[in-house]
Specification:
The chain is an alpha/beta fold and 453 residues long. Helices cover 46% and strands 12% of the residues.
Length: 453
């Protein structure tokens, strides 16, 4: 396989153009929204919080509730302690959340604000909680921010009472609310008691009721998170987003854990279900086996459209790794696979997958969409898979495009459809095959041919 930068491309070390990521606080805010009656709080300038809320609102088409310390020039010089304490007092008085989840911004990180001290000296009503995570945007990505907030949740909330609750913990990783719902559905079908957090299902995909609810009914409740310290086992789905939290839970509450791939496609979903049966003794019911059979049948029915097709993939590391496994299962060739999140583990994982499959491709972490477009321009692909920002590459290079992952902002209902599990796999096969078929039909029309299926 190829592990070097493709020839004729521009190697840049000090500049990113269109990075395939966004900043840590967005991921932290998303994780915090997965706690019931939690108000995410951005400790920094008002503009940072506004940007993060805007991005999540564009993705999920829901009003994102969050607060800010609203730094001014004075706070930037003398520290944000006074702003923080005033904000906390106002938040509990006006908005009455059960918990405030604080994340930091570049400014507060650079001046060195001591968040634990600010929390300990703030006026917190009885029964209310404040947690925090350090999320400097100049380190990592939004996935790092999600991971750091999960770590923060674990460090503050779970407690081991010494009495096991007979449940397993699931840290689902940086996936959408529909994916979290699908994971819960699979666990329900297997009759496995569980605690999953964060859980944005029922928060960012809440139904229209005609009445505004600042805190929708979804999200993991604080008592359940506290009780997760008594669980039997923890599954971390995705190394980058979930493993740090699982390690923290193991260290704090002595709960063993295992890190698995995000369950996208046949093999990764198989592994998830097999590990569930090992740890719980529960059998996989016929309903789930039927869903697997349907996915395999669909893959066989459409195989002629996938075989040998070269694909470029970009997005978040955990889901991109699993998606790469899936396109290999479909008979495709992942020619270029990138993520904006730094880390050699991503590159090593993708290279190992390509070598095992015996195909050539390039994997790169901390990359950007400008670099990906140069590769595609020099050595084209048959398909591009990634978020909304890939549409500009697709238009410029005339490449079929399938939207996948965060942030996909230009497709309504996108956030209601899972990509995990066998049901999510069926959805992916449908989207990929139909995009390729549409391109074949367009080309046939240009040549006065008709596609026979």
């Amino acid at each position: 396989m190829l592990d070097e930068t493709p020839k004729n491309s521009i190697e840049r070390k000090a500049l990113k153009i269109n990075p395939a990521k966004t900043c840590q606080p967005i991921g932290a805010m998303y994780a915090a929204l997965g706690i019931h009656k939690c108000l995410p709080h951005s400790h920094g300038s008002q503009g940072c919080c506004a940007f993060h809320r805007m991005q999540l609102t564009r993705m999920f088409k829901e009003p994102i509730m969050a607060s800010t310390s609203s730094f001014t020039e004075g706070a930037s010089v003398f520290g944000g302690g006074a702003n923080f304490k005033t904000a906390v007092k106002n938040i509990f008085t006006l908005y009455n959340p059960d918990i405030i989840a604080v994340h930091t911004t570049c400014l507060s990180e650079t001046i060195g604000d001591d968040i634990p001290t600010y929390i300990s000296t703030s006026e917190v009503p009885e029964g209310k909680i404040i947690i925090h995570a350090n999320t400097p945007s100049y380190v990592g990505s939004h996935v790092t921010g999600f991971s750091n907030m999960v770590k923060g949740i674990v460090s503050y909330l779970p407690k081991n009472t010494g009495i096991k609750n007979g449940k397993i913990n699931i840290i689902p990783g940086f996936v959408g609310p529909a994916d979290m719902k699908e994971i819960k559905r699979l666990l329900g079908l297997m009759d496995i008691p569980f605690i999953m957090y964060p859980d944005t299902n029922g928060v960012l995909d809440a139904p229209m009721t005609g009445k505004f609810e600042m805190y929708p009914k979804g999200g993991t409740k604080v008592p359940d998170i506290i009780d997760s310290g008594n669980s039997e086992f923890t599954f971390a789905l995705g190394k980058t987003a979930s493993e740090v939290g699982a390690k923290g839970l193991e260290k704090k509450c002595k709960i063993p854990f295992k890190t698995l791939y995000t369950p996208i496609g046949v093999e990764a979903t198989d592994e998830f279900l097999v590990e569930l049966t090992k740890e719980t003794g529960k059998e996989v019911p016929e309903e789930i086996e039927d869903e697997r059979g349907q996915l395999v049948d669909l893959m066989l029915d459409s195989y002629q459209y996938f075989h040998g097709k070269k694909v470029a993939i970009f997005g978040d590391p955990d889901v991109v790794i699993s998606l790469t496994r899936f396109v290999l299962e479909l008979g495709m060739i992942p020619k270029y696979v990138i993520t904006g999140t730094p880390g050699e583990a991503f590159e090593n994982e993708i290279k190992a997958l390509l070598e095992k499959a015996g195909v050539e491709g390039v994997a790169k972490a901390a990359s950007d969409l400008f670099e990906l477009q140069q590769w595609i321009k020099n050595n084209g692909v048959d398909l591009l898979i990634g978020n909304t920002h890939g549409k500009f590459i697709a238009r410029a290079e005339d490449v079929p495009f399938v939207r996948f992952g965060f942030m996909t902002m230009d497709r309504f209902g996108f956030y209601y459809n899972p990509v995990v599990g066998y049901e999510g796999g069926k959805r992916l096969v449908e989207n990929i095959s139909n995009v390729l078929i549409d391109r074949i039909e367009r080309d046939c029309a240009d040549e006065d041919f008709e596609l026979v299926r």
